[in-house]
Structures
1.
Amino acid sequence: MFKNFLRVYLYVIVLIFFSACGSKNIQEIKIVIPSPPNEPKVFFDISYSGDISFTKVSVLDAFIGERIAFTTKNLVKPYGVAAFGDSVYVTDTAVGAVFDIDEKLKKVSFIGDSSPGKLALPVGIAVDDNGSIYVSDSKNASILVYGKDKKLLRAFGGRLELNKPTGISINNKLKVLYAVDTKAHNIKAYSLDGKMLFTFGKRGKGAGEFNFPTNIAIDRRNDNIAVVDTQNFRVQVFDKNGKFIRKFGKIGDRPGMFARPKGIGVDSDGNIYVADSAFNNVQVFNEKGELLIFFGSAGKFIGQFSLIAGVYIDRYDRIYVVDGFNRRVQIYQYMSERWKNDNPEKYKEIKGE
């Protein structure tokens, strides 16, 4: 578990950084949170912007902008993120498609960029245990499902059920998809075949009520649901059936407060990560809502963010953070006890032993 550090120091070694690329090809970056000699909890792994992330360029070329091919396969306005297998899936509201960034093959392809299943305004994204990809289309008020072959399998929701779907998350154990309906100020639960199961929440400021909620995450330990209640400047936690459990956070500019909370994720220890697009950082809370650490600041360098958006944490505690205006996804690693046991040499390296 995290210790109660209210201030985080970033241990950063940056030789030269070219912000558009976000790749380890042109820089070696070490970010450890908190900084030595404290016990490390999170470290930066890698960043992806699209095709450019797999283009090898020299430091000098990167610095002066030579021989860098900017293609349509680079992120423009990313928002949501999920991962499955070797793929990092990123919704892009400007491109109107989902980027499939294949870490193993080092290539980029698209989902929902053509009919049938062409996306208009993709926002939220989630993947089930079979590898099927679920995308919320806010403009068309629907959720589209694609197979591993990127072909449309089905769509559900529609304007009779949804107003403006945004963040989505799947409980693979229960086979339930939870969708945030931002303009309806509620959460809708669906079976994975698209049948509406139940709805919870309404507009308001009380416990269990929302004011323009945006994103959602599942605690895999206990099936609890964490929802970013954006315009109430807080996070609310519910059980799998939508029963209110607790809330934390309030408007302000001090650690533990929120200004424009957006993305959310939950790690294997139940810690809750909340991205704030005003602070351009990620605050980490324990399951009781107590602030543990935070990382990030405004800027273009790795470890900094500009209009931070979606967050996703996979089963291996990789933390995917969408860095919107910097047109990239930064990936960090939470060093749980399981991770340290599975990666003893990497752990020693991070500690500087």
2.
Amino acid sequence: MKKLSVLFAAVMMVVSFGTAKAQKIATLDVVGVLTAMPEKKKADAELTAFADAKQAEIKKKADAAQAKFQQYQTEASKKTADENKAREAEMEKLGTEIKQMQEKAQKDFQAKQDAAYEPIEKKLNDAVNKAAKANGYDYIMDANSTSIVYKGGPDATAAVKKELGL
């Protein structure tokens, strides 16, 4: 009976060591990888150009409104109260139009940004999955995250860049 207990204890120790496999954890410089991707650089350039074009449209409209406001200010004393009231309503309408243009530009930019970054994120995630499987990583954590307290494990940045051909 004593031999059976010792044998059972030995078997349990071997089984527990076999199932308590060490997990491989690696860190990944996500920002560094994204910065190196040509697709991201191209998307950023396109988004900047889009934002600049929208901003130029808004500025043009705002400048025209400002010029009209200056004109109305100088002519106000020569106009009737009804004319000045109509001009004031027109200026309010222009202000509302400019605000709506800004809101629409922001929504359009967000939609364009989402559409531009979606394939880049998918490509990065696919590369991370391939690199993790190829190198046996159980977890890969973002090296730039403030929530990581310890990041002394292997760095998967090189493996992911290799998968992306960078």
3.
Amino acid sequence: MLAIVERDTDRWSSTEPPPVSADALLLRVAQGDQQAFSELYDELAGRVLGLITRLLRDRAQSEEVAQEVFLEVWQQAAKFDTARGSASSWVLTMAHRRAVDRVRAAQSSRDRDTKIGIRDFESGFDQVSESVEIRIEHERVSRALGRLTEFQRQAVQLSYYGGYSHSEMAEMLGVPIGTVKTRLRDGMIRLRDEMGVTS
């Protein structure tokens, strides 16, 4: 039985080359290697589309955004730095950012439509005041987020805007789960401090 397994292993290793890492593929893409881009696409497209679909919920829009992500990967591959993380986390972070941008754009469009509709009705409360308060609060949160470190801000946004678990974030960012928890905890403490929230 052992001899059969050994022969099968030898046959597999001699006929199929070992898989190329996403990092190596992305470095080749940065040099304009179209074959490497095709292989990278095959390796990551499913995960990219899955991540985007979780945020957008709309398959057609998700596919459109996924195509935009891979176009950006092709155009920006030279900016990938292996010292800052893995290729898969770089691409998935890019996908998350583009999906969030699409969600925000859709929300802005809905908000505009809602405002146009509300203009035709009288309200029992001061909408201008409420809208100003919401805008001021949003600006406070944005300013506070801007004062976090890049890693803290990324952890807070993935957790609270993206709805990811600690383990999903660790896989996406290519870091240990303990690191994710520390970044998130430190980010939330600093965010509370920046916003003057007392516990």
